[in-house]
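A.,

Following up on our hallway conversation. Structure tokens first:
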């Protein structure tokens, strides 16, 4: 039996969060090239499906499917399909840091759902988490400015948070009967099937894949082909970080992994600032701090 190594687990989650954080900016460059949110989600899901399936095949029989599992796996896939699309849609219209911070209230929604629907025990700190997160989000969005931010972008962020929370809850039930890698593989299978119907592959702008596109912002003078950026989104933006997080769960608890994963929005904000010249003002940064504190409390409340 593998001996848990907490330091390794934390390091794996930190690396995964860093890759996810960088992926936000890479995805924004892809979206600016003419690939829309649905098409990018479809490519990412299909690529992750291939990667996760290859990993799962190293354990013969792990992909065996029972009929009774289909509804849960299909729901998991739908969650994966929608959460990625809504995130890509949001970052195409908002600054990456704002989109991610709103998305990251999902653990708070999970804790509230577990407390009031599943009647799980939860520490009283959940109320402090709720107050901090809502106060922080009010500062991030700067509600007093009214129409400053994209309404559709904010709506997409809220959809991302809700569907991410649903995905987490479904996945928690799924891992009771199936290992995380095969669970992810089947989830990406159903997500890919969903997008194949919603955005048929023959509508994909394949002619643009070989185009060289500007990296935008402070790297505007540099260019890369779209296929190279898509490869990043698939390999370093999905397969590797997902695999790292799954592997980390052998060394640390899901709660600790979730708290460590909050490093992602920090990385995303720094990368978007250095690369795309996106920035949060002092009020928004203070809101980001409050929101992250609230999310950390929510993670530890269950």
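Then the amino acids I'd put at each of the 302 positions:
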């Amino acid at each position: 039996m593998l001996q848990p190594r907490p330091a390794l687990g934390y390091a794996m989650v930190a690396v995964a969060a860093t890759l996810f954080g960088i992926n936000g900016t890479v995805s924004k460059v892809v979206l600016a090239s003419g690939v829309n949110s649905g098409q990018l989600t479809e490519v990412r899901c299909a690529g992750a499906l291939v990667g996760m399936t290859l990993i799962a095949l190293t354990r013969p029989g792990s992909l065996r499917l029972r009929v009774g599992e289909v509804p849960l796996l299909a729901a998991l896939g739908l969650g994966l399909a929608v959460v990625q699309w809504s995130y890509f849609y949001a970052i195409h219209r908002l600054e990456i840091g704002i989109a991610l911070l709103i998305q990251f209230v999902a653990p708070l929604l999970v804790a509230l759902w577990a407390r009031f629907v599943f009647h799980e025990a939860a520490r009283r700190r959940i109320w402090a988490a709720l107050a901090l997160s809502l106060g922080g989000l009010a500062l991030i969005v700067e509600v007093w400015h009214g129409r400053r931010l994209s309404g559709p972008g904010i709506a997409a962020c809220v959809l991302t948070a809700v569907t991410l929370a649903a995905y987490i809850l479904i996945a928690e039930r799924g891992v009771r009967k199936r290992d995380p890698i095969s669970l992810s593989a089947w989830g990406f299978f159903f997500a890919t099937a969903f997008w194949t119907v919603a955005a048929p592959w023959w509508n994909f702008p394949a002619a643009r894949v070989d185009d060289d596109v500007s990296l935008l912002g402070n790297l505007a003078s540099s260019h890369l082909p779209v296929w190279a950026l898509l490869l990043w989104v698939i390999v370093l933006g999905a397969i590797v970080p997902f695999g790292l997080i799954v592997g980390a769960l052998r060394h640390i608890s899901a709660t600790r992994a979730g708290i460590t994963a909050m490093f992602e929005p920090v990385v995303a904000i720094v990368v978007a600032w250095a690369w795309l010249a996106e920035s949060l003002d002092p009020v928004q940064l203070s809101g980001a701090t409050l929101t992250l504190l609230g999310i950390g409390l929510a993670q530890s409340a269950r």
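DSSP finds twelve helices and two strands in the chain. Curious whether your intuition agrees with the design.

B.
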